[in-house]
Amino acid sequence: MDLSIFGYDFMMRALIGALIIGVAAPSVGVFLVQKRMALIGDGIGHVALTGVAVGFLMGTSPVWTAVVVTIVGAVAIELIRERGKASGDVALALLFYGGIAGGVVLIGMSAGKSNATLMSYLFGSLVTTSAEDLRTIAILGALVTVLMVVLRPWLFAVSQDEEYAKVSGVPVRFLNMLLAVTTAVTVTVAMRAVGLLLISALLVVPVATMQQFARGFTVTMFGAMGLGVVAAGSGVVVAGVGDLPPGAMIVLMALGLFVLVAVVTAVVKLARRTLLPTRPATVAATAPEPLDCHLDKAA
Amino acid sequence: MAENDVPPVAVTHGVVHYGDRAVLHGVDLRVETGQAVALLGANGSGKSTLIKSSLGLVRLTGGEAALFGTPVPRFRAWHRVGYVPQRLGAGSGVPATVREVVSAGRLSRRVLGLPARKRDRLIVERALEAVGLADRAKDPVTSLSGGQQQRTLIARALAAEPELLVLDEPTAGVDAASQEALAAVLSDRVADGATVLLVAHELGPLEPLIDRAVVLSHGRIVHDGPVPEPAGVHAEPGHVHVHPHAKEEERLWT
């Protein structure tokens, strides 16, 4: 394997940027998956396109306008969700189409921007990461990761059982907003690496991979962060050596890990079943109990 | 009661509407310190709604709810309250161990962003032991039986070291062993001076520790006093069936 391409600064910046995003994205994603909002990253990614276009129009850095616009979008979704005014998937649909359409029209209005620029945001442009971009990625990525790790027990409580969290005095509203804003920041940071259309993969796929065999939440979270690093690192290396698009390669690596784990867990389960045909203790512990025959209608 | 006149739970003229439908019609409920009160009634009688509104989880459309003398919207001392919902929040597929779920109950005593102290971990272990799940602490909650999951939720409430325990149908769909474990834990808490308010369809092994029963029917309190004798209540017009005959009760009320 010819790794000489990593002698270039731009390739090293790409690799470091990808690794940071690889850690940060699943640390947020684990809470989104737990809240059954796995696709929210996609919705916010679409909104980010409008943010990028606003940056082009105003002649400022698209990353910062995208951060502002996605935070506004994420807070709006959270408010809609909290009030229960629209179901989650309808809110997402509004964002998907509004965000993409707004972005494409606005980019069309800005002078001298080609489809190539649009493509670089939709599918990532890791190798064009400048030293300044890398600094932004590092600061925001570290901020997101530290917040998620430090607030893990509280965010876990809110995502797992919001009602119970409320009567535990956990600041539910604040934490939901924080999670929305953090998701927005992560999406904007990661759009440089994997692109807005593939962003959700990095938030969700490593978590889904861990879910297949992990027994606890903490293990799932840190395991997913580790898998995110592995996918990001190997994706950039393979893309660099084979001259392939790094963003898509990172996502394929993450999916490859998912399939690998799925196969291994299936084999292990099968082996356990054939080697240990009867395990009465386990059977008793998991034996189904009669379901409640009725839900309290008032509840 | 003499030295502490502030009731842990007080709902005054509580009215709750779901849409246009009134579920509670001006209910008054006052639970005194150290009491063990059971809310009984058929499905749809409003008993779950009443305890949820007493905690602020369901918004009152009329009247007022207070916890330890403070109106619920301004109540902050949540570590004094241990809430046991009907069931574990809908699983999303992200696994969580029994200990992780129980630890969430300790958050009302922790400072946001600071790590758990030794004492926090100790209390969580004690709560696990109290419900007999210490040996399952590292197992995913989804691998437990319904009764064991219910015990997990009770351990989570105990982890706050609460003065008031509010339980929503803790015995529904729970095996006999878990019902006994629950009764033991609760009588322990009551002996320690804790106040208990629970919703039940049938009391079963909990009956000896209940010293007051409040029966709801169609959003109104129809009985407040000792646990009603099934035969006697049966004889009255508009009786409310509260004794453990789940099958019969279903026919009566659904």
Automatic annotation (TrEMBL), chain A:
<dbReference type="GO" id="GO:0055085">
    <property type="term" value="P:transmembrane transport"/>
</dbReference>
<feature type="transmembrane region" description="Helical">
    <location>
        <begin position="63"/>
        <end position="80"/>
    </location>
</feature>
<dbReference type="InterPro" id="IPR001626">
    <property type="entry name" value="ABC_TroCD"/>
</dbReference>
<feature type="transmembrane region" description="Helical">
    <location>
        <begin position="12"/>
        <end position="32"/>
    </location>
</feature>
<keyword id="KW-0813">Transport</keyword>
<protein>
    <submittedName>
        <fullName>Zinc transport system permease protein</fullName>
    </submittedName>
</protein>
<keyword id="KW-0472">Membrane</keyword>
<comment type="similarity">
    <text>Belongs to the ABC-3 integral membrane protein family.</text>
</comment>
<feature type="transmembrane region" description="Helical">
    <location>
        <begin position="138"/>
        <end position="157"/>
    </location>
</feature>
<feature type="transmembrane region" description="Helical">
    <location>
        <begin position="177"/>
        <end position="205"/>
    </location>
</feature>
<dbReference type="GO" id="GO:0043190">
    <property type="term" value="C:ATP-binding cassette (ABC) transporter complex"/>
</dbReference>
<feature type="transmembrane region" description="Helical">
    <location>
        <begin position="217"/>
        <end position="241"/>
    </location>
</feature>
<feature type="transmembrane region" description="Helical">
    <location>
        <begin position="247"/>
        <end position="271"/>
    </location>
</feature>
<dbReference type="Pfam" id="PF00950">
    <property type="entry name" value="ABC-3"/>
</dbReference>
<dbReference type="InterPro" id="IPR037294">
    <property type="entry name" value="ABC_BtuC-like"/>
</dbReference>
<dbReference type="GO" id="GO:0010043">
    <property type="term" value="P:response to zinc ion"/>
</dbReference>
<keyword id="KW-0812">Transmembrane</keyword>
<feature type="transmembrane region" description="Helical">
    <location>
        <begin position="92"/>
        <end position="109"/>
    </location>
</feature>
<keyword id="KW-1133">Transmembrane helix</keyword>
UniProtKB/TrEMBL annotation, chain B:
<dbReference type="Pfam" id="PF00005">
    <property type="entry name" value="ABC_tran"/>
</dbReference>
<dbReference type="GO" id="GO:0005524">
    <property type="term" value="F:ATP binding"/>
</dbReference>
<keyword id="KW-0378">Hydrolase</keyword>
<comment type="similarity">
    <text>Belongs to the ABC transporter superfamily.</text>
</comment>
<dbReference type="InterPro" id="IPR027417">
    <property type="entry name" value="P-loop_NTPase"/>
</dbReference>
<keyword id="KW-0813">Transport</keyword>
<feature type="compositionally biased region" description="Basic and acidic residues">
    <location>
        <begin position="245"/>
        <end position="254"/>
    </location>
</feature>
<feature type="domain" description="ABC transporter">
    <location>
        <begin position="1"/>
        <end position="243"/>
    </location>
</feature>
<dbReference type="InterPro" id="IPR003593">
    <property type="entry name" value="AAA+_ATPase"/>
</dbReference>
<feature type="region of interest" description="Disordered">
    <location>
        <begin position="230"/>
        <end position="254"/>
    </location>
</feature>
<dbReference type="InterPro" id="IPR003439">
    <property type="entry name" value="ABC_transporter-like_ATP-bd"/>
</dbReference>
<protein>
    <submittedName>
        <fullName>Zinc transport system ATP-binding protein</fullName>
        <ecNumber>3.6.3.-</ecNumber>
    </submittedName>
</protein>
<dbReference type="InterPro" id="IPR050153">
    <property type="entry name" value="Metal_Ion_Import_ABC"/>
</dbReference>
<keyword id="KW-0067">ATP-binding</keyword>
<keyword id="KW-0547">Nucleotide-binding</keyword>
<dbReference type="GO" id="GO:0016887">
    <property type="term" value="F:ATP hydrolysis activity"/>
</dbReference>
